[in-house]
Write a structure and sequence with these properties.
- The chain is α/β, with parallel strands linked by helices.
- It has two domains: 359 residues, Luciferase-like domain (TIM Barrel); 36 residues, no CATH class.
- Helices cover 41% and strands 13% of the residues.
- It contains 14 helices and twelve strands.
- Strands 1-2-3-5-8-9-10-12 form an eight-stranded parallel beta barrel, surrounded by six helices. Strands 6-7 form a two-stranded antiparallel ribbon.
- Helix 3 links the parallel strand 2 and strand 3.
- Helix 2 runs parallel beside helix 14, helix 3 runs parallel beside helix 4 and helix 13 crosses helix 14.
- The longest helix has 22 residues.
């Protein structure tokens, strides 16, 4: 069985390198440029659907006035795309739960699941950029963090896991009481919503247990339920946290690995072992999702130029400050560093095919997510690379012992 391909586009407004981005400040507020990017993005979505990708995805990031990742509302984009594609699933990788109300997310994603008639997938992420997670999530009194084992890291994880589980309960139960450490509903949890004026009809026609005999709202019923009342596939972003992988395994989520392959191999095995502890027998790679930034070119020189044009600016100025494995020193050979980073697959068709074959032979992931820095990388270039991957690389990725598809992904 071949892996399912998800195309993830980071909405990076284009500039003439770092200096051009400075001259165009604040590029993220350029409405004419965003309009152009938005509709070219739709062109890519429709073309990728015709190429046979399994999924089309975007992100949730806010307030990036530099124009690096202008992606504040994935749900709106998903709804728009859903009416434009024939076969592909749509989703986001993903909602940053420390900044989100779990009830609102349960509502929005259930509607999207209906719009797509079940071809919707949900992604959740912990968030790492305090510039906007602290602002939008201020009611949580937390900070964004990387997985460093610190007190802030643990608090961020607690909030994330609490709210993800609340979303699941809102999808799956007709009436719920959400009594968490960081979120409660109905609020206040001790009394509920006292004296609801329309209590008589709500008690008789609403979900059982919503309204008590005194006319107080004691439980909530989140509507609508997802399409066919089943959980959409859930993907969770992780880079190096074993605990995130175990969390995914316990709940049959799809860990989405933004990591070097040695880490992917380790985490994929952890997933299998943790799932087995809970009576869930999965094969290596099943429900696993490996993420890579790809470039396929006719020569090494052409590939190096693509990296210079499309990747160095964001890699140096945006990834580097957050993640210590990425350099910020201007004297770095960034082209070589990117190629050696372990998260890119770059080269000729043959080189990329051989690299993917090597990875897939060891961990036959059910999903592959390809990320392009559109629109810093122009539309036609993205489509040319994607077509090469779908026609010249993907056919060679046939698992020796095919991992069965997760039921939720059907």
């Amino acid at each position: 069985m071949q892996p399912k391909v998800i195309l993830q586009l980071y909405p990076m407004l284009p500039a003439d390198g770092e200096e051009g981005r400075k001259r165009a400040r604040p590029l993220g507020r350029n409405a004419d440029l965003y309009q152009k990017v938005l509709f070219e993005w739709l062109d890519i979505v429709k073309a990728a659907d015709e190429m046979g990708v399994w999924g089309l995805s975007t992100i949730e990031h806010h307030l990036h006035s530099e124009g690096y990742e202008v992606g504040p509302n994935p749900g709106v984009l998903n709804a728009w795309w859903a009416g434009q594609v024939k076969n592909a699933h749509v989703g986001a990788l993903g909602y940053v739960m420390a900044t989100q109300d779990p009830i609102r997310i349960a509502e929005e994603t259930a509607i999207l699941d209906h719009i797509t008639r079940g071809k919707y997938f949900v992604g959740f992420a912990r968030g790492y950029q305090s510039r906007w997670t602290n602002i939008l999530g201020q009611f949580t009194d937390t900070v964004a963090t990387v997985s460093d084992g610190s007190a802030n890291d643990m608090k961020n994880r607690d909030i994330f896991e609490e709210r993800v589980m609340m979303v699941l309960r809102c999808w799956e139960e007709d009436a719920v009481s959400l009594h968490g450490n960081y979120y409660q509903a109905p609020y206040p949890i001790e009394t509920g919503v006292v004296g609801y004026p329309a209590a008589p009809i709500a008690r008789e026609a609403g979900a059982p247990g919503e309204i008590d005999e005194q006319g107080n709202v004691r439980r909530i019923s989140v509507v609508p339920a997802p399409y066919k009342k089943r959980r959409p596939p859930v993907f969770v972003a992780t880079s190096k946290s074993d605990e995130s992988v175990r969390f995914c395994a316990r709940h049959k989520f799809h860990p989405t690995y933004f990591a070097k392959f040695d880490s992917v191999k380790k985490m994929a095995q952890i997933y299998v072992e943790e799932a087995a502890k809970h009576g869930d027998k999965v094969t290596l790679g099943q429900r696993q999702n490996i993420v890579r930034w790809p470039h396929i070119a006719g020569s090494a020189a052409e590939c190096d130029q693509m990296i210079r044009d499309y990747d160095i600016d964001i890699y140096k100025n945006f990834y580097g400050p957050f993640f210590p494995q990425f350099p910020t020193d201007p004297n770095t050979d960034f082209v070589q560093n990117i190629k050696d980073s372990g998260i890119y697959t770059v080269g000729t068709v043959e080189q990329v095919r051989d690299e993917w074959r090597r990875l897939y032979d060891q961990v036959p992931c059910e999903y592959i997510t390809l990320i392009y820095h559109f629109a810093q990388q122009p539309k036609d270039s993205v489509l040319r690379e994607l077509e090469l991957f779908m026609t010249k690389v993907l056919p060679y990725l046939e698992a020796a012992s095919s991992a069965p598809a997760a039921q939720a992904a059907e």
